[in-house]
Specification:
Elements: H1 3-20, H2 36-43, H3 48-53, E1 57-70, E2 73-79, E3 84-90, H4 96-103, E4 110-119, E5 125-128, E6 131-136, H5 152-157, H6 159-165, H7 167-188, E7 193-194, E8 200-201, E9 213-216, E10 221-225, H8 230-238, E11 243-251, E12 263-272, H9 276-295, E13 299-302, E14 305-308, E15 315-317, H10 318-326, H11 336-345, H12 356-367, E16 376-382, E17 391-392, E18 395-406, E19 409-416, H13 421-436, H14 447-454, E20 460-466, H15 467-475
Parallel strand pairs: 3-5, 7-11, 15-16
Antiparallel strand pairs: 1-2, 1-4, 2-3, 4-5, 4-6, 8-10, 9-10, 11-12, 12-20, 13-14, 16-18, 17-18, 18-19, 19-20
Helix pairs in contact: 6-7, 7-9, 7-15, 10-12, 11-12, 13-14
């Protein structure tokens, strides 16, 4: 028998002992006053003398983190995950059921404690354990006795153990929740309406990506998990909902990396009568507001560097950024032959579709993207890679589009929305041609969306922000798996 098997056997024996004594080790309810963190918040200023003069009786639940025996006195720490509370138990004064619970107590058990609040001679806020109730018997030991779950893959596969043993992991997901709350508050305060759009769609559109497929049995219909909600949200602009947003889950059947997960979360919004310059100002304001409220200042600490968020952020065209960081003569970025030669000279992978726009994007990603650490808007993207964006009036090769880069990662994508149905139809046909050339991420022709545009969509700016990558930045986490509670992993044998 292994050491783990031995520990499990001992815990199961204690479970049986409790049951034989008529004690339910998994009760349905524990009426309580506060959890440990709440006790500290409410009574942090109470002195020992005040707690004696005006006794405070509480019922507090928590997971047992530590047990320290000193003769007939036992100290235990119970935790709610964010704070621990010391419990002082005088074992010889316990009633029979409480004494049995104490005798069969293990680290990791959930315990309900009833007693009076006090401070020890060292000033520690402590609850006297006058009555003990088993709330859930843990049949397996906790990881490394709360010194931390160190194995990275185990942290992802058993996130519950990671949250128990690594307080910094809990903080990551508290920040993530705060980001979502803050986004909603920011947009709601500016009269945006939160909506929901289909996650199963007859056509995968709104982004250049390979979709997941599924099948609807009742309708006998093949469907796609959405790669983006864009085309449905813009239908709402046609319908007169002129400021809408969705915090949405998207699914892209692509590679996995430290910055990519097949299932991810985005904020996507559309704002009628605005353009991509208005969206840039909104993004600056949103990031500064969130950083100030969550982190205390408009600064991100990323890989040992302070990234200042003070506006305005630099704006570089894709052409200028490629020339600057690649140390390339801008004249050598103007045609397919020169771009192909430059990519080959650097040993970079050529894109599947080798028109001017796709080649420029490939070279930009090769030479410029890693240098974009401070917040930077990369503006003016080629038409070939921006099928849903409006062309620039002074340069028909380019669109009114930007991507936001921070920490060397793309955080947001936005543009002035294309609302001319005839031009959009031509763009879709161009996407179909790209698919025939081998680009299986190119978009399909969405006839119903063209029909919607023919009814008239107002000029608008649109935006998508990756919540997972944003959380990485706000918590200084290098891997996207650190900020997703249950990332997709290959099944274990």
């Amino acid at each position: 028998m292994s050491e783990l098997d031995d520990q499990i056997a001992h815990r199961k024996a204690k479970l049986a002992t409790l049951r034989e004594a008529g004690i339910d080790p998994f009760p349905r309810l524990f009426e309580h006053d506060l959890e440990p963190a709440g006790v500290h918040r409410r009574f942090v200023d109470k002195t020992a003398e005040e707690l004696v003069e005006e006794p405070v009786s509480l019922r507090v639940p928590g997971r047992v983190q530590a047990i320290r025996e000193h003769g007939k006195t036992v100290f235990a720490d119970i935790s709610d995950g964010s704070a621990k509370l010391q419990v002082l138990i005088r074992s010889h004064k316990l009633e029979e059921d409480s004494a049995r619970v104490l005798a069969n107590l293990d680290l990791g058990d959930y315990l309900g404690v009833s007693g009076d609040l006090m401070r020890t001679r060292t000033g520690e806020l402590t609850l006297t354990g006058e009555k003990l109730e088993m709330l859930a018997k843990a049949l397996r030991p906790m990881p490394e006795k709360y010194h931390g779950l160190a194995d990275t893959e185990a942290r992802y596969r058993q996130r519950y153990l990671d949250l128990i043993s690594n307080p910094e992991s809990r903080r990551v997901f508290e920040v993530r929740a705060a980001l979502l709350r803050g986004m909603r508050a920011h947009l709601d305060g500016r009269d945006f309406l939160e909506v929901e759009t289909p996650m199963m769609q007859p056509l995968a559109g709104g982004a250049t990506a390979r979709p997941f497929t599924t099948h609807h049995n009742a309708l006998d219909l093949d469907l796609y998990l959405r790669v983006a909600p864009e085309l449905f949200l813009k239908r709402l602009l046609v319908g007169g909902l002129h400021k809408v947003y969705e915090i949405n889950r998207n699914f892209r059947n692509e590679g996995i990396s430290t910055q990519h997960n097949p299932e991810f979360t985005m904020l996507e919004l559309y704002w009628a009568y605005a353009d991509y310059r208005d969206i840039m100002a909104l993004v600056e304001e949103l990031f500064i507001t969130l950083a100030t409220s969550i982190l205390g200042e408009p600064v991100l600490n990323w890989k040992g560097e302070r990234l200042e968020l003070a506006a305005p952020w630099p704006r570089l065209t894709m052409l200028d950024a490629t020339a600057k960081y690649g140390e390339i003569d801008p004249a050598k970025l103007q045609d397919v032959a020169d771009l192909t030669a430059e990519l080959e000279r650097r040993g970079a992978e050529l894109p599947r579709v080798r028109d001017w726009g796709h080649l420029l994007l490939a070279l930009f990603e090769e030479v410029a993207e890693p240098h974009l650490n401070a917040p930077t808007f990369i503006i003016d993207h080629p038409v070939e890679i921006s099928p849903l964006a409006k062309q620039k009036a002074d340069d028909p090769r380019m669109t009114e589009r930007f991507e936001l880069y921070i920490g060397g990662m793309e955080l947001a994508n936005a543009f002035s929305e294309l609302n001319d149905p005839e031009v959009q139809a031509d763009r879709f046909r161009g996407q179909l041609a790209a698919r025939e050339l081998g680009d299986d991420e190119a978009q399909r022709y969405d006839e119903d969306y063209i029909l919607a545009l023919e009814h008239g969509m107002p000029p608008a700016g649109g935006l998508g922000i990756g919540i997972d990558r944003m959380t990485m930045l706000f918590t200084d986490r290098a891997s996207i798996r650190d900020v997703i509670l249950f990332p997709l992993l290959r099944p274990q044998a």
